[in-house]
Amino acid sequence: MSVQERKQRERADRERLIVATARELAEQQGWDAVTTRRLAERIEYSQPVLYSHFRGKREIIGAVALQGATELATAVRTATTTATNPRARVTALARTYLDFAATHPAVYDAIFQLDGGLPYAQDNTPEPLKDAFAALQETLTTVAGHNTHPGLFTEVFWAALHGIATLTREGRLPPEDTQQRLDLIVDRLAVL
Amino acid sequence: MSVQERKQRERADRERLIVATARELAEQQGWDAVTTRRLAERIEYSQPVLYSHFRGKREIIGAVALQGATELATAVRTATTTATNPRARVTALARTYLDFAATHPAVYDAIFQLDGGLPYAQDNTPEPLKDAFAALQETLTTVAGHNTHPGLFTEVFWAALHGIATLTREGRLPPEDTQQRLDLIVDRLAVL
DNA sequence: TCGATTGTCTAGCGGTGCTAGAATCCGGAT
DNA sequence: ATCCGGATTCTAGCACCGCTAGACAATCGA
């Protein structure tokens, strides 16, 4: 039986290699540059091998999205737990979120912009996505205000951050005033 | 000279036809379905004709974006001027914006998501885009608060709306609670 | 009516995501 | 040690994409 186990292990390794390579290529040259041919060449296998692991390019994007969501959740939790008061926590959350979007634009796109074939905001939403939302909600619940549903508040706060992140990255908003925008959002939205 | 004038007129007509057809096709089947072949077939000319009007597909998207921005500006101004008090004006603005995004998703994408080759947030930004932002700012300035720069406030309010619009359309947010999210944004962000 | 210019089309380039079927490798039984 | 059979991987190709060179047709001015 050990032979089969080794094969399974090698297969899992190769799958991780595919996802890591896709992500790397996307961060280096954008998702448009992530073609099945280039990806296959980089992992030193032929194209059809990709399709023995994933249904198609879409699913590879989805895999990157799940990985990214886990990291985003971790980053947010790390940043919020080190802060000492509510206001600092929310500011840290917002800054971490926008930092993540700015430093990993391709991963951010995989999670929030591209079609990775993942179900969102549903019962069968994958755990990493739910958990990323939960990471936001944990902190934001504390500043939602008494008459406001925490989930709804989190959605709105998140949407505001998402708007700033995407509009800034696509050149719709000048990047200089990001900090001031962040302050304004925290000041107005959070009930302290 | 009248022959040349007629030709120019016909050329302009055809250009409008191209933009209108691209827009129609995008709204019906999404931008992915707007291929140069399909577009050429619908306007009953061959592919190269498109390239005598536009540098490429990107510029066609840009043309739709400019048209859409003009309409969005008009819609926002119409909605805000009929309202009687500041709070009603801001609510009308937000609702109109989200309505526009929901009912013309392809046009909204052309303006705010896709690459139409247009310069944003710069001196040479096309007038329709500047004007759409101006339309938002006209109303939002009145509720920015005294210590807040109107431009910055407009950007943040806009980003929040944009976040809700895009996350909702891509299924990241359930569409049912849009009205409550809208109310929350107006309540918290606007200084009345 | 002719020549030149303008306009349009056919055909094709290199690229995309994806897949059928051939070729190869390799573990396990003899 | 050898061979068989199944799993694995590759070659080659599909239909489509954006875009363009060069052939062809239509039209205008002389």
Could you characterize what this model shows?
Two copies of one chain form a homodimer. Chain A has 192 residues and is mostly helical. The first copy, chain A, has two domains: 53 residues, Arc Repressor Mutant, subunit A (Orthogonal Bundle), CATH 1.10.10; 129 residues, Orthogonal Bundle (Tetracycline Repressor, domain 2). Chain A is built from nine helices and no strands. Chain A is elongated and about 60 Å long. The model of chain A has no long low-confidence stretch (mean pLDDT 96). At the A-B interface, helix 8 and helix 9 of A face helix 8 and helix 9 of B. The structure holds a DNA duplex (30 and 30 nucleotides).
Explain briefly what this protein structure is:
2 copies of one chain form a homodimer. Chain A is mainly alpha-helical and 192 residues long.
Please outline the helices and strands.
The structure is a homodimer of 192-residue chains.
Chain A: H1 2-29, H2 36-43, H3 47-53, H4 57-82, H5 86-103, H6 105-112, H7 127-140, H8 150-169, H9 178-189
The first copy, chain A, binds a DNA duplex (30 and 30 nucleotides) through residues 3, 7, 35-37, 45-52, 56-57.
* Strand content bin of chain A: under 5%
Quaternary: homodimer
Number of domains of chain A: 2
What is the share of helical residues of chain A?
over 70%
Could you say what the CATH architecture of the largest domain in chain A is?
Answer: Orthogonal Bundle
Q: Return Rg of chain A in Å.
A: 19 Å
> Total number of helical segments of chain A?
9
Largest sheet of chain A: none
Average of pLDDT of chain A: 96
